[in-house]
Structure formats: structure tokens, C-alpha cells
Amino acid sequence: MTIKAVVLACLMVGSSVAAVIFQPDKQQAKQREAVGLEALVPTAFSDWSVDETVMPVLPPQELAEKLRRTYDETLARTYVNGGGERVMLSIAYGGDQTGNLRVHRPESCYMGQGFQVEKIAEEEIELVGTTVPVKRLFARAGNRNEPITYWIRVGDDAVTGALGQRLVQLKYGLRGVVPDGLIFRVSSIGGDTRKAYALQDRFIIDLLAVLPADQKARLVGRASSGRRK
């Protein structure tokens, strides 16, 4: 077992003990207005607009049912820019980020649908006044190549991995708070990952640039000033 796996296992036990001792009962989602993803994310901004000709690919029925149990809101759109380049956006929000209800990382979701998934890198996207940590994946199924960029917001923190997710959950648990959470994922089709990630970064930066600070915080959190794995 690797050191990271041991640390994660200890955190899982620790967070379970903390949950019993401190009994988190203050749900963060109940202290905030509903996210309202459909209204929050504009259908057109900068050089981007929703491509109505492209229908989102629906997950298998079993996975769809699991998503309905886990998330309070989901949003799936395909955007196209003036150059004909397309980016697929998927956001899922859950008001209770404890136990089995916490958001699921794309690695497992894509593999569950038959993709081979390779982790490419963990990086940061520079925004005005802050940075957002992101994870890069490359998913492949048959002739379909899909570079992916994502982050997870737990409470006010943006994270990319299971360890960071657990650490933030534990932090909130010690304060008696059940954090809400959201996963923000973009992807595009093609085998050129360098070009794809540059396109995805441009899309993310353009989107967040048009949102007021409070709305942007609903997507990236308020503590996104450094990398959390």
C-alpha cells in the first residue's frame, strides 16, 4: 500500500470518527440560495454559444438513476465558438457532501461507461485574482478520443483528487458543517491533448470572466488560491 493510500485510509477513518463525535448537522446548502445551474451559466458569452444541434449523450439507465440520487442539479451543454470549435460542459451539484452522496470523479464515471482513462496532469488555471486547480484526463473508447478537464468544489474549496476531497470534508466536519459540492467538467473530441486543453482553458476563462464574483464562487469556491489534490 502506498503512503498516499495509507494517509487516505486514515483520513477516511478520521472523518468517520469526527462525524460521530461532532455530528455535523448544519447543511451549507440550506444556508445558501439554490444554485440554479440553468440560469447561472449563460447560454452565450464571449465567442461561445450553445450548439442546439448537438444533443448530450445520456448515461445508461443504472448510472442515470445513481446520478439522480446523488445530485440535486445537473447541467449538460455543448458550446461552439466562431471558429467551429466545440466544448462539452457538464456540471453536477449536490447539497450533501458526506458519505456516499459526495460527488463522483470522472475517472470512475468514464471507466464505468467502457472508456480507458489516463491521468495526464494536475495544473492550475490562472484567473483574475485567483487560481483554480484542475485535473487533466484523456479518455478513449474505440475511435473516440476525449481530453477532459475538471475540478470539484467542496464547500468553499476547489480540489482535484480524493485526498483533497476528504481533507476538506474533514475540515467542515470538525466545524459541525455538512458542505455542499459541485463538479465542473469540460471536454472536447480529438487526439491532440495540448490543443484540447488550451481550448478548454479558454472556454473556462471566458465563462468565469462574465460571472459576478458571487456567482463565480458557486462554481470555483472562495478559497481557490492554490492547488489541492
Structure characterization notes:
This protein is an alpha+beta fold. It has one domain. Helices cover 34% and strands 31% of the residues. The chain has helices at 3-22, 37-40, 61-70, 106-112, 162-174, 193-209, 213-220; strands spanning 26-27, 44-45, 48-50, 73-81, 86-94, 116-127, 130-141, 144-154, 157-159, 177-178, 181-187. Strands 2, 3, 4, 5, 6, 7, 8, 9 and 11 form a nine-stranded antiparallel β-sheet that branches. A two-stranded parallel ribbon has the order 1-10. α1 (3-22) runs parallel beside α5 (162-174). The radius of gyration is 17 Å and the shape is globular.
Largest sheet: 9 strands, antiparallel
**Uncertain ranges:** 1-24
The number of E-state strands comes to 11
Structural domain tally: 1
Radius of gyration: 17 Å
Span between N and C termini? 19 Å
Overall pLDDT score:
79
Query: What portion of the residues fall into strands of 2 or more residues?
Result: 25-35%
Overall 3D geometry? globular
Helix residue percentage: 25-40%
SSE series: HEHEEHEEHEEEEHEEHH
Class per helix and strand makeup:
alpha+beta
Instruction: Please count the helical segments.
Output: 7
